[in-house]
Amino acid sequence: MEQLMMQMHRCLVCFDDFPLARGVKCVAVDAHFMCADCLEGYVREATSDGNLSRLEAEGLWQGIPCPGVNCKAPRFTERALAVQLSDDAFALLAAARNAIVERRRTQEMEATIRAQHQVAATNEERALRVREHIVERILTLACPHCGQAFIDFAGCSVVYCGRCSTGFCVYCLEDCGIILRMHPGDAAHRHVLHCEFNVTGEPFASQDIFETARRQRQRRELDLYLATLSPDDAARALHDCDRELRDLGLVGVSWDSSAHLYKFKMLLIANHQAT
Length: 275
Fold this sequence. Notes:
GO molecular function: ubiquitin binding; ubiquitin-protein transferase activity; zinc ion binding
GO cellular component, one term: ubiquitin ligase complex
Largest sheet: 3 strands, antiparallel
Low-confidence stretches: 252-263, 269-275
Keywords: Metal-binding, Ubl conjugation pathway, Zinc, Zinc-finger
Strand content: 5-15%
Pathway: Protein modification; protein ubiquitination
Protein name: RING-type domain-containing protein
Strand order of the largest sheet: 5-6-7
């Protein structure tokens, strides 16, 4: 063993000859050798101020590689480095490794936080779009053609849009086309008389009948729309629209779990049957 340690090897860095005991040798077939002095200088230069990025980019923080060109041998062991490096250089290498590990951990935490914020922002954006759809497309009475809202019900079950002249049914909001001359025989009147949701079969209705039909239609459309959402999104939508639902006499629920959504749907069915 002593003879083996005293065999001379040429350093691949400085090209001087040294005994094996004065350096480190990789386990490749060519057995590349680097002397202790070159190893010391390499470690000190690699761990100097401002070189952490290089140390990390080249993977040196995971171990010192063989200096042989394209050598695939494993990195030098910690034991070999501890034997050949001075205490000061070995401490510098350990400190640099710890700094890189800490920096990578911080970067991973920051990336996780950014991803969480992005998910939260995406969820909020989706929740806003869902609420806007429910409020503007389901809870707001509007022309089915141009979206012009209308509020007052004058007793006639046919409504003519003041913006685009579309005639539509007050019960189901069926678009009956543009009607330039209103008369009892136009398409909108013909539809209203045979609309499946017109319980009177007449072109006129009381305010109570109108309100009942409105609630039924909004419940139907809301139930169908909620069924297209995930349970969490549907529950969030009910929470966000709770005030509007209550103001319109519709069912409101708290935003807790899918069980509330199920309860909401059961209440819708019960209300459909009751009204």
